[in-house]
């Protein structure tokens, strides 16, 4: 993996005695080559996710980050820094991009990148307009691309008086946003009222085939920046009928390949006619976009039209239809289909019920749609799902969390390239308060998310808290005579792995034992046991450590400078009725320069161990007391997943001290330190 941030050549001469490290280090420290390539901005355009490769072609490994494949979602902004060709002749882009607040680089196939922004020349009027509208900068990069290709399109910023985090939380309330139960695990909520942690089964909604959507998927679906491209932006199009550009020819193109292109129905006069003509007639009568109506029918009944609500053959409801699924939700012991047909069978002249013809169902459903949504202010596909009118979140046309995205894509197909290029189309794009700085990505992990324990026990003493699968911290007190303790744990899910069990030696005082459960999908949960070993009854050993940072619970000493010796450190420790010894990790007494993993041992007067600390030097990942390319190499291996760091060495690799795990940013800081461009402090 190569890390790049500028176009300068960097010369770095370093002698590495271990020759096997050279190829791994090259990715971090190789001089940059200048190919005369003009970097340009691009946007990822895919239906789902795009894998990033370490080289140009699928024969190269997938790029990983923190042990997971790096996958970019539709609308992701990247910088194209070069071009290369795979062995099959296909063109690949070398790219740089921000990923989880880290800078990464890799290769992607050119077919999945829209590089149209290179054709965007600064348009002063457009830039002034964007600023006047109040679009944030991270919206503008996408809108500039669209403007370059479709200069007649109009983008209106709809500034909502809603906090982003509040909206995500509210739309994630269990049952409010749903996704198919067959979806990958990270799309489904693991809240206790949505997922049974003991059985590993998601609860069913709306007849059982739907699950509650995860908060991460809700955030993805809510974030407008994911959909500011020509495929998905139509979820922000105004839904009112615009005869100037919503034509029958465009509708015919939109319906191609669906049941509405293959079949005819009786129109309002009882004559057989095409769906396209019927929808145009209904649009004129209700003021609702015919493209919106078509997209909604396809979304609700499927492109093949096999939805039972429009079959007309359901027992007891023969000859009744409900094209837009009004009232179709499971309740009162009835399925969603039965309730939808009960709704269709009722009498209501305002909505042309009963819907005992296909035409009346479409006209009546569209009339309700217009009155209930468009005229009420929910005038885009996006606002059909995400409601901010009146009492927010309560008047939402669909529970399907990505329905707005999918309907937007369907609507876009109704516009030919010529129509898109020539027509003035207005898009009403929401902007929330306190939005995250980066686009909310589509979750991509799959596999069981179950990372809880069914049991956790210790061999000595008793845990002061009763075990519960969702309680993650426990306390145990043992007598001074207990020098070790054995921890046993069992995961609920057989596919999960458990580490941290077994026998642990105990120092006098507080000892922290972490038991980590890693689910099949890679998510982890840590259970922590604090074991307090009592001091010996015949000692009053006491100690004080000056000028350094001491973490009693974790048993760590930090804030040493590089080059600190054992003799220097001894001068910072005062012990009453005992002694202090500096050792290496294996317990052998040590002198000279100290490194990560070395130990400070406080002994009682009888030379038994009273308390033990490990030394933590940020950046000194291999424990040699120096900061060099060897440390960066170990960080790289951890990121690539070839050799994982653990314990105090993993903490030392978190060079930025951000509690964000081991990232490319940490290796980059070491590189800058070695080059003298920054100073890593403790």
Question: What distance separates the N and C termini?
Answer: 27 Å
Strand numbers in spatial order across the main sheet = 8-7-6-1-9
- How many structural domains can be distinguished in the coordinates? 6
- Largest sheet composition: 5 strands, antiparallel
Bin the strand percentage: 15-25%
Number of separate helices: 18
Q: Output the radius of gyration.
A: 31 Å
Number of strands: 31
Mean of the pLDDT scores?
Answer: 88
What does this structure look like?
The chain has about 675 residues and is an alpha+beta fold. The protein has six domains: about 35-120, SH3 Domains (SH3 type barrels); about 125-240 and about 380-445, no CATH class; about 260-375, no CATH class; about 455-535, Immunoglobulin-like (Sandwich); about 540-615, no CATH class; about 630-675, no CATH class. The chain is about 25% helix and about 25% strand. The strands form eleven sheets. The chain has a five-stranded antiparallel beta sheet with strand order 8-7-6-1-9, with no helix packed on it. Strands 26-27-31-30-29 form a five-stranded mixed beta sheet, with no helix packed on it. A hairpin with a 4-residue loop joins strand 30 (about 600-605) and strand 31 (about 610-615). The chain is elongated and about 105 Å long.
């Amino acid at each position: 993996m190569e890390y790049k941030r500028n176009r300068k050549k960097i010369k770095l001469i370093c002698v590495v005695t271990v020759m096997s490290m050279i190829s791994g280090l090259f990715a971090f420290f190789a001089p940059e080559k200048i190919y005369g390539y003009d970097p340009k901005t691009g946007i990822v355009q895919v239906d789902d996710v795009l894998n990033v490769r370490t080289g140009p072609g699928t024969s190269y490994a997938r790029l990983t980050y923190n042990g997971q494949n790096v996958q970019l979602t539709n609308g992701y902004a990247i910088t194209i820094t070069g071009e290369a060709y795979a062995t099959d002749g296909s063109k690949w882009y070398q790219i740089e991009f921000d990923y989880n607040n880290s800078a990464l680089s890799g290769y992607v196939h050119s077919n999945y990148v829209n590089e149209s922004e290179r054709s965007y020349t600064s348009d002063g009027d457009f830039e002034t307009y964007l600023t006047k509208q109040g679009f944030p900068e991270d919206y503008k990069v996408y809108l500039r691309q669209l403007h370059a290709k479709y200069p007649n399109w109009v983008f209106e910023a709809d500034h909502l008086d809603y906090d982003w985090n509040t909206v995500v939380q509210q739309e994630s309330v269990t049952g409010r946003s749903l996704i198919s139960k067959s979806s990958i695990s990270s799309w489904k909520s693991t809240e206790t009222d949505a997922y049974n942690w003991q059985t590993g089964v998601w609860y069913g909604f709306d007849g059982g085939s739907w699950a509650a959507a995860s908060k991460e998927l809700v955030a993805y679906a809510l974030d407008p920046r994911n959909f500011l491209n020509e495929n998905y932006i139509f979820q922000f199009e105004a839904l009112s009928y615009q005869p100037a550009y919503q034509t029958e020819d465009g509708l015919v193109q939109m319906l191609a390949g669906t049941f509405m292109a293959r079949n005819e129905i009786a129109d309002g006069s009882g004559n057989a006619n095409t769906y396209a003509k019927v929808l145009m007639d209904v649009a004129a009568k209700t003021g609702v976009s015919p493209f919106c109506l078509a997209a909604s029918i396809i979304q609700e009944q499927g492109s093949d039209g096999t939805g039972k609500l429009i079959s007309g053959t359901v027992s007891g409801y023969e000859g009744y239809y409900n094209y837009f699924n009004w009232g179709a939700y499971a309740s009162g012991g009835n399925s969603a289909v039965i309730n939808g047909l009960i709704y269709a069978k009722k009498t209501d002249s305002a909505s042309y019920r009963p819907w005992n013809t296909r035409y009346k169902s479409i006209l009546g459903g569209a009339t309700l749609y217009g009155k209930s949504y468009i005229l009420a202010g929910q005038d885009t596909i996006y606002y059909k799902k995400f409601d901010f009118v009146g009492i927010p979140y309560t008047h939402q046309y669909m529970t399907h969390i990505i329905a707005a995205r999918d309907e937007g894509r369907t609507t876009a197909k109704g516009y030919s390239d010529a129509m898109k290029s020539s027509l003035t189309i207005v898009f009403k794009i929401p902007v929330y308060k306190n939005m995250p700085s980066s686009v909310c990505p589509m979750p991509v992990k799959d596999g069981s998310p179950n990372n809880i324990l069914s049991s956790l026990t210790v061999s000595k003493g008793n845990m002061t808290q009763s075990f519960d699968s969702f309680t993650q911290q426990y306390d145990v007190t043992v007598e001074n005579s207990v020098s070790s303790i054995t921890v046993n744990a069992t995961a609920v899910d057989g596919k999960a792995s458990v580490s941290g069990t077994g026998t642990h030696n105990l120092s006098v005082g507080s000892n922290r034992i972490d038991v980590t459960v890693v689910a099949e999908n890679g998510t982890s949960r840590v259970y922590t046991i604090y074991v307090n070993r009592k001091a010996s009854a015949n000692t009053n050993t006491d100690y004080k450590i000056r000028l350094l940072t001491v973490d009693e619970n974790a048993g760590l000493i930090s804030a040493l400078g590089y080059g600190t010796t054992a003799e220097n450190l001894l001068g910072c420790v005062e012990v009453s009725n005992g002694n202090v010894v500096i050792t290496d990790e294996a317990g052998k007494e040590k002198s000279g320069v100290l490194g990560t993993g070395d130990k400070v041992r406080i002994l009682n007067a009888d030379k038994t161990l009273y308390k033990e600390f490990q030394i933590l030097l940020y950046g000194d990942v291999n424990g040699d007391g120096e900061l060099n390319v060897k440390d960066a190499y170990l960080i790289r291996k951890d990121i690539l997943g070839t050799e994982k760091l653990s314990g105090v060495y993993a903490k030392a690799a978190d060079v930025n001290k951000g509690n964000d795990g081991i990232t490319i940013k940490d290796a980059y800081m070491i590189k800058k330190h070695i080059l003298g461009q920054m100073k890593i402090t403790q």
